[in-house]
Specification:
The chain is an all-alpha fold and 107 residues long. It has a domain of 44 residues. Helix 1 crosses helix 2 and helix 2 runs antiparallel to helix 3. The longest helix has 38 residues. The radius of gyration is 20 Å and the shape is elongated. The mean pLDDT is 80. Pfam families: DUF3040. It comes from Arthrobacter gyeryongensis. This is DUF3040 domain-containing protein. InterPro entries: DUF3040.
Length: 107
């Protein structure tokens, strides 16, 4: 992931301020939608990983290598999806280094 240049940071901050000024209801709705959607994706990733683990263990217990491979693939996919969500949550919640950006403007 590339860091934004100072110009890009200022431009994005200006757009966020204009959005907040022009349509505060829409801006509030957009802020409130980001974390729950990420939380649902995180939960589904964890659930998929657990289901894959169950399929993997069933394959091992039944001595069915194909079922074990399928379970491992499902488990890996779920873990990957969950880790992507955790990374995006960490990036979103990091405090801004810009002093002009208030807590109401952070997503």
């Amino acid at each position: 992931m590339m860091a934004l240049s100072e110009y890009e940071k200022k431009t994005l901050e200006k757009i966020a301020q204009e959005l907040e000024h022009d349509d505060p209801k829409f801006a509030a709705k957009m802020r409130s939608m980001t974390l729950p959607a990420t939380g649902r994706r995180l939960a589904s990733g964890i659930f998929t990983a657990l289901a894959g683990c169950l399929v993997l263990l069933t394959g091992v217990a039944a001595r069915a290598p194909a079922l074990g491979i399928i379970g491992f693939t499902i488990m890996g996919t779920g873990a990957y999806l969950a880790s992507k969500c955790v990374g995006s949550l960490a990036i979103r919640r990091r405090p801004s280094s810009s002093p002009s950006m208030g807590s109401a403007e952070m997503g």
